Each structure stands twice: as C-alpha cells, then as structure tokens.
TrEMBL record, chain A:
Gene3D superfamilies (alphabetical): Aldehyde oxidase/xanthine dehydrogenase, a/b hammerhead, Aldehyde oxidase/xanthine dehydrogenase, molybdopterin binding domain
Protein's organism: Streptomyces carpinensis
InterPro entries according to UniProt: Ald_Oxase/Xan_DH_a/b (IPR000674), Ald_Oxase/Xan_DH_a/b_sf (IPR036856), Ald_Oxase/xanthine_DH-like (IPR016208), AldOxase/xan_DH_MoCoBD1 (IPR008274), AldOxase/xan_DH_MoCoBD2 (IPR046867), AldOxase/xan_DH_Mopterin-bd_sf (IPR037165)
Protein name (Swiss-Prot/TrEMBL): Xanthine dehydrogenase family protein molybdopterin-binding subunit
Organism taxonomic ancestry: Bacteria, Bacillati, Actinomycetota, Actinomycetes, Kitasatosporales
Domain of life: Bacteria
Length: 762, 159
C-alpha cells in the first residue's frame, strides 16, 4: 500500500476561493445589521479629563455608544493584566480605543464618533526604550506593581518582562578569545499586514452571544470575551469564517468584546470592519522595534568562545502576547552555533507606541538578522569565508545548546552545504553591485494540547471535526491526508468542520506553527479509534479475523485475498444499526528535551527547543550605488522540516515566508513622528509585489524525529520568514562594502552607509 | 432627506442588468458587495493599492474601490462570480485551483480578474511579463511564486 504522506494534494478549499463563494467575516449578511466605529485617542499619552457622549447618543441612526463606563472594570492581558477594553482615565498610544459607536450606516457611526467630546490633558510621551528603562523615566503604567501576571513573569518599571539566559562563564570565555567584537543592530517596528483587514460581527440571543471574527485563535478569543464581559465562556460562541491571512496579527484576543458590548446595548447585530489605516494604527499587534547589542569572543581559528547579548524590545503601551517574542528572541541570540559561554538578557519595554506582540516567527527575523550580520563580521575579523566560519561553529548532534539541551541530531550543516551548492557559493559572474549573502538559523516546534473528532458517514465519506484554525496556510486542509492515511481512504473524501468553538475541541489556534504538529497528532489518534471500530465491524461482516484485514482504496479487505473485501461505505452504513464509527483524539504533547536553567531568570516559555529544525538561506542582491536601492533577484532556501507531510503546502509556506522576509529586509518599517505613525497605509508602508519577487529555489530536507509531530514532522509555518532578511543583509554588506545596521535596509539607509564610507575614505 | 440624495444607477454586472438606488458617493466595490450581494470582490485597503477589489469593466482591470458606481453605468462589469459558467470553472480559475495559486484566498478574486485582463492582452507571456502584469495585486501568503505559475498555466491552457 502506498503511503499518502509526502504526496502532492491540491487543497480542498480551492474551489470556493476561486469562485468568490468563500465567505470571510466581512462578507456575512445579517438582518438589522449595524455598523461599528471606534473613537481613538489620536495622541500618544494623555490624561482623560472628561468624556461626553450625550450628543453622539442623540444622533440619527445611532443605536449604541459605549465607553469603559459601560464595561466591567476588568484588566486583562495574556502575560500581564495591564489593559482595559476602553481607555480608563489615561490613553497610552494613538490607537487606544476611547469609545465605540454602532449606527445604521458606517458614515453615521463615524459622525457620532466625531461628536463625542473628549477633553485631554496631554503628557510628554515615553518613546525611547533606553530612556524608558532609566529610573528617572516617567512610567507608562504607574500602577504596574499591582497588575496580575502569569506565573514566572519578572518585571520592572516600564519593563513588562525581562529574561536572562546564562551558560558557562562568559568572562572566562572572553579571556580565551583572540578577538572581541561588539556591535549594535536596530530594527524598526513592522506589521503583519494580512490582506484581509480585521472584522468582527456579534449577535446576541438571550444571554448568549455568537461572534464571527477574523481571529487566528478562536478559543483564546472566546476566553477574552468571557473575561472582559464577565460572562461564562459557555455563553460565548466564536466562529471564524474563511480567514484572509493573519501572520500573527490576528492572534490574541482583540476587538470581539467591544463589538459584543455594542450589540448588547443596541439589541441588534453589529459589525466592525477595519480600514487599512486602523490595521496599522489600532491592531496593537506589531513586530517589535528592537535594539540588539552583541559582543562575541572568537579565537584566531574562528572558534566562538563567548557571547554577551542584550536585547531591548519596544513593546509599546501594553504587553499583550509580547513575551513570546522576548522568550524566543532570547533563544535566538546564540543562533544554531556552539557558544560555550553565554550571557543574554532581554527587556520588553513599555512606551507610548502601538503595542507589539507575536507576528509570524516572533523575535525570529530581527534577531537572526542581527546575529547573522555579526557572524559575517566575525568571519571577516578572522579572515574566513562566511561559509567556512559557519561550518566551524554550527551545532552538531551531541552538542549542547544555549540552555544545555542536547541535540539528538542536527541538520544545520546539511542545510548549509546544500544551499551553498544550489546557489553556487561564493558565486561568480556578478554584475556590478551584485553579491551573495548567507544566513543560517534554527526554529522549534511548539508542543500543545489539541483535539479532534473523526467520524465515518454511511456514504463512505469521513468528517473531521477539529478545534484547529486555518489561517490560509493549508494546515487544516492537510489534516485530511493524515486521517485518510489511517483509514485507507483519499483525502478528498473528508470534509472538515473547523474554527467554531461550539463544535471542535480546544485548540490554541493558528499560532506557533502548531496546527499540523499538534492537531495532526489528535486527528491521527481519532482516526485510529475509528480504524479499530471499522476493522472490528468489517471482520464481523466478512467473517474474518481482524488481524487479517487491511484498509486499502476505500475498502476493508482480507490481506492477500482482494476478492474478500467490503467498501468502507457498507461497513459505515451497517454500523448505523450498531455501534457508530466515531473517534476522538487529543494527542499528548511531547515534553521539552532535558535542559538546565541554572542562572537563568524570568519566564522562559521556550527554554529549550522541541524538535528543532534548521535552515540556510542564500540571497543574491544588487545594490544600486547611485540610489542605494537593493533588489533581490534570487533566493535559495533550504529547510529541514523533519518529515514533509504535504510538499505543496510546505513549499508554499517557504515561498511566502521568503518574500515576506524580503519585505522586512528592504521595505517594511513604521516611521514615527513622536508617538504617531507616519506611514499607516499601503502607499507609505510598501509590500513586495510580483515584480520585485525573485525566483525562490526551495529545497526541503527530512530528518524525522520521534519526539515530534505526526510521522516525525516539525513545525513549518514560521521558520521560512526568519532567515532571508539576514542573508540579504550579508549580501548587501558584501556588495556595498559597508554594513547597514538597521532594518529595513531602505535605499536611504544603504545610500547613507555608502556615503559615510566615502567620507571615511576621503 | 437621505433618500433624496440617492440616485438611480444602472449597472450591467455579469451579464445581468440592475437598476439600483444608491448614493452617488458609493464606490462600485460597495455597491457590488452591499447592494448586489456579490461579496467575491474583496476590500483590502480601499485606497487603490492592494488590488483585491479588481473587477473587469469592459474587459479592463479596474479597482472597484476607486470608482464610483455612478461612473460604471453602461459598460459590461465582470466580477469573480461571473467567471464560471454553468458551474464550470474557466481556465484561469482552474489554473489557480490546480497550481496552488492561493492560500488564504483573499487576494484571489482580484488576482483572477487582473490575470484575465492581462492574458487577454498578452496571450503568450514570458515570466517577466507576468510579474509586471500582476504587479498591481498584493498577496501576503504565497510569495507570488504559484500565482506566477498559475497565470502561466492558464496562458498555456488557453492555447
Ligand atoms: S481595496 Fe481596492 S485596491 Fe485595495
Ligand atoms: S492568498 Fe492570502 S493574500 Fe494571497
């Protein structure tokens, strides 16, 4: 019997998406629907002296106006309970929601927002992370000490989470070094930018509310609604129609409760749809601006002896789910290298800017970029080719990582060699301004509980009911292959019921690249239960022994006697008069590899990397010396993902991630004037388009692990976005002869670097 | 009072004539979605950059968020819902579905409409021409690789 695993299957939801029939949240129709608009602070930091909603409430078409006075006084937050649904006494960033309106038309709602009179007393905003950490700085949250936190979170004034990772003796390591290099890198705030803006619809029936939302995380979003409105979780149903991309920007609990509150007051369904400007200013879920300081000791032969690292993350006004970034960023500072002595610390700093959180591969691209620029500089110091320098320092099986985890295997070197081969490292026949740059990195698989049900229907089809959430990547669509493999059926014979908190069992949602890894295990377990029942029933019907049966091509048959067979449909139909062919599964999450946290501090959620995967990216860039513009004609991306379950899906993730990362490398960053974003739109904040997009050479390697996901798989969604910006940075430095130490490496920054260099030479 | 600001607009969409009472400030995209229920046309930015709202107006790819409905009277308007006939996908839809030319699918209707207008003018495009031709539509998921591949496959299938 040929396995379905690793075969190419076209995704199941393609048909509805190419016909325009796929319904997204903003497409849903409701009788009596009202439209929501938010009133934002539009200033970085102020005290609210007075809010007057009387005029707004009296306006034509207006059915509800709500402020914090209408909501329970609950502080919420995943790690630190530091915020309220609406501004309470103060505003802390420009996109802070002060009030919300529901009216018959969006225009009426907007007019009513404009009619709400708010008197502010403006305060000097806290913007700079270094300044904010000084003891003399005013506080973004004067009451921070009284906030509740998750276990293990260590904080300070203006610091919602700091963490330390220590290994060996860093001073002794520096003493062994022949060279010590210190560098500082900075990255601008960047956005997830799904093409579908946020949208929420809420409708009450009695004391129960159904919320349709563009959420990546229906279960956590439901919990957020229940917590902030002080109602039982069982009174909240969260449904996600088709989701138009997320990339982390739609993780965490956001605007569902605001809309539910409006709908309750208005006694009608209410819909919120964000404009693109709101997507930039108000989503409070951006990639942190960061400052990364690295000091590394290296021997003359290129051996790394020690590293000290300090990362400051600009977390904006609230903590949100930012500590994922903190934890993962911390684990990226050693890179996939042997660093015997390490001292690293990360601070998550409150400022009066848009709150940051986990965007696809939180803490990944920016830290990998800084570390890999630094790696090339170290190679240059000791006079080694960047490839050779990496060869000498990459982790291998048997090495111990940053927190003492022992690597059972490591494909780091294989990825490096394969990428070098494909890209033709060190490259030749370069046009003027052209060069290659290389970067390596690693990522983890997130273990989490997750559940699914599988049932077989009388017509021989199957249904998977899962709590998992499809963000567009195809991970939920791919679950059908796993069930089909267990049951000797075809993936297209399964329908999937998903992203509805009333039907599927709990799942973390589309976050942390965890769907296939965790829900895949659950689906296999559920299908396994169905398999057992199916074989029992078929054995009875065929008058054969269960052990002699196999499930192939949609039939149960006696091994070696193909004529003695029954279509699965007949067994399923027959089971309707006896015991049904249903199963449930909740794969037990694998535990983290053993490691050692002595000397470390703070909440270290990712203190070891489960089923680590490795990659190497090589970018070819062209730097226009006149303008500083960087173009990227080719990227090679080699990833090892354990076991490739769905090659088309995995390849799609790599291609999409690489192109996103090119955007981060050369285009994407928010510019600020004080506490206000200067480019909150797609004209000012540019994305890579088809004309800029290079050909991406993807190669996927396998190194199945038994402490990982289904069939030895590892996480796929996030790693592809981590390495490309780093490779581009190194290529830019090689081409321009000077290094740009800020992300994005815009034309202006490259041009300035080129000029400074001329100045230095003159 | 609100009614008096509305005006009758005649639109010809996917071969069907419609008479609608709409405010003159309403965009074609909003009228297609809200008044005609054709939600296949997506809104990603409402400022003319993302291309998700692309429809065909007399065969030309137009951003429906930048055009008022009152301006669209007369010509033949085609939306993604008008591509398949009798439940049979057209060659471009087929190419995108079969070549994994989509992930979340939010950009897909706009991509399909742009591909239509582009391939009508460039029946045998090179890869570079496809990249240029599809340049006005943003996709955040696919990295464009499979969109380019799907467009090339559609060109081939049309021959
Ligand atoms: S919605 Fe029209 S171009 Fe973006
Ligand atoms: S498929 Fe998601 S934006 Fe293109």
């Amino acid at each position: 019997m040929t396995s379905l695993i690793g075969q190419k299957f076209v995704r199941g939801d393609g048909l509805e998406k190419v016909t325009g029939q796929a319904r997204y949240t903003a497409d849903l129709a409701f009788t009596g629907l009202l439209h929501a608009k938010f009133l934002y602070a539009e200033r970085a930091r102020a005290r609210i002296v007075d809010i007057d909603i009387t005029a707004a409430r009296a306006m034509r078409g207006v059915h509800a106006v709500v402020t914090q006075a209408d909501a329970p006084m609950v502080r919420y937050g995943m790690f630190v309970k530091d915020r309220t649904l609406f501004a309470h006494e103060v505003v802390r960033f420009e996109g802070e929601i002060v009030a919300a309106v529901a009216a018959e038309t969006p225009e009426q709602a907007e007019a009513a927002c404009a009619a709400i009179r708010v008197v502010y007393e403006d305060l000097d905003p806290i913007l700079d992370v270094e300044e904010a950490l000084k003891s003399s700085s005013p506080l973004v949250h004067p009451d921070w000490k009284s906030y509740q936190t998750q276990n293990g979170v260590e904080r300070g004034p203006n610091d919602c989470g700091h963490m330390t990772s220590v290994k060996g003796d860093v001073e002794a390591g520096f003493a062994e070094a022949d060279h010590i290099l210190t560098e500082t890198y900075q990255s601008d705030m960047a956005h997830a930018v799904p093409i579908e803006p946020h949208a929420v619809v809420a409708q009450w029936q009695g004391d129960k509310v159904t919320i349709w939302s563009t959420s990546q995380v229906p279960f956590p979003a439901r919990a957020g609604v229940a917590e902030t409105l002080q109602i039982p979780q069982s009174n909240v149903r969260l449904v996600v129609p088709h989701l138009g991309g997320g990339f982390g920007g739609k993780c965490d609990f956001h605007f569902e409760a605001h809309v539910a509150l409006l709908a309750r007051q208005a006694r009608r369904p209410v819909r919120l749809v964000f404009t693109r400007r709101e997507e930039f200013v108000a989503t409070d879920k951006v990639r942190h601006a960061s400052k990364i300081e690295l000091t590394t000791g290296v021997k003359a032969d290129g051996t790394i002896t020690a590293r000290r690292a300090r990362i400051l993350l600009n977390s904006g006004a609230y903590c949100g789910d930012a500590l994922f970034t903190t934890e993962i960023g911390l684990m990226m500072v050693a890179g996939p290298y042997r660093v015997p002595n390490l001292h690293a610390e990360v601070h998550t700093v409150y400022t009066n800017r848009t709150p940051a959180g986990s965007v696809r591969a939180p803490g990944g691209p920016e830290t990998c970029w800084a570390v890999e620029q630094h790696t090339d500089e170290l190679a240059r110091r000791v006079g080694l080719d960047p490839l050779e320098f990496r060869r000498r320092n990459l982790v291998q099986a048997g090495d111990t990582g940053q927190t003492g985890q022992r690597f059972i295997s490591s494909s780091a070197k294989e990825c490096l060699e394969r990428a070098a081969e494909i890209a033709g490292w060190p490259g030749k026949d370069f046009a003027p301004g052209e060069a290659l740059g290389i970067a390596v990195g690693w990522w983890f698989s997130l273990p989490a509980s997750s559940g699914a049900y599988v049932k077989l229907n009388a017509d021989g089809t199957g249904t998977i009911v899962t709590g998992a959430q499809e963000n567009g990547s195809g991970s939920v669509m791919g679950l059908a292959t796993l069930a089909a493999e267990e049951l000797g059926m075809r993936p297209d014979q399964f329908s999937i019921v998903y992203q509805d908190t009333e039907s599927g069992p709990f799942d973390l949602g589309s976050a942390g690249s965890q769907t296939t890894f965790n829900n895949g295990r659950a689906v296999i377990e559920a299908a396994g239960e169905v398999r057992t029942k199916l074989l029992r029933k078929a054995a009875e019907m065929l008058e054969a022994a269960e052990e002699d049966l196999e499930l192939v091509d949609g039939a149960a048959r006696v091994r070696g006697v193909p004529s003695k067979a029954l279509p699965i449909a007949s067994v399923a139909a027959a089971s309707q008069t006896s015991s049904l062919l249903i199963g449930s599964g909740s794969g037990n999450p694998p535990s983290l590899p053993e490691h050692d946290l002595s000397g470390c501090g703070g909440r270290l959620g990712y203190s070891a990397f489960l089923a680590p995967s490795f990659f190497c990216h090589i970018a070819r860039v062209r730097v226009d010396e006149e303008t500083g513009t960087v173009s990227v004609p080719e990227v090679t991306a080699v990833h090892e993902f354990g076991r490739i379950l769905n090659p088309l899906g995995a390849q799609g993730q790599v291609e999409g991630g690489v192109i996103q990362s090119i955007g981060m490398a050369v285009l994407e960053g928010s510019q600020y004037d004080g506490g206000r974003q200067l480019n909150p739109g797609l004209l000012g904040y540019k994305l890579i388009t088809a004309a800029d997009a290079p050909r991406v050479n993807v190669e996927l390697l396998e190194d199945p692990v038994d402490h990982g996901g289904p069939h030895g798989a590892k996480a796929v969604g996030e790693p592809p976005v981590v390495g490309t910006a780093a490779a581009i940075g190194n290529a830019v430095a090689a081409a321009a002869g000077t290094r740009v130490r800020a992300l994005p490496m815009t034309a202006e920054r490259v041009w300035t670097a080129l000029h400074e260099q001329e100045g230095e030479l003159a | 009072m609100a009614m008096s600001s509305k005006q009758i607009v005649e639109l010809n969409v996917n071969g069907i004539p419609h008479q609608l009472l709409v405010e003159p400030r309403k965009t074609l995209a909003d009228v297609l979605r809200d008044d005609l229920g054709l939600t296949g046309t997506k809104l990603g930015c409402e400022h003319g950059v993302c291309g998700a709202c692309t429809v065909l107006v007399d065969g030309r790819a137009i951003r429906a968020c930048l055009m008022f409905a009152v301006q669209a009277q007369g010509p033949e308007i085609t939306t993604v819902e008008g591509l398949a006939s009798d439940g049979e996908l057209d060659h471009i839809q087929k190419a995108f579905a079969e070549n994994h030319g989509l992930q979340c699918g939010y950009c897909t209707p706009g991509m399909l409409m742009t591909a239509h207008a582009f391939l009508a003018e460039n029946p045998e495009p090179t890869r570079e021409q496809i990249c240029e031709g599809m340049n006005g539509n943003l996709c955040r998921c696919t990295g464009y690789q499979n969109i380019i591949k799907s467009t090339a496959a559609a060109a081939k299938a049309a021959k």
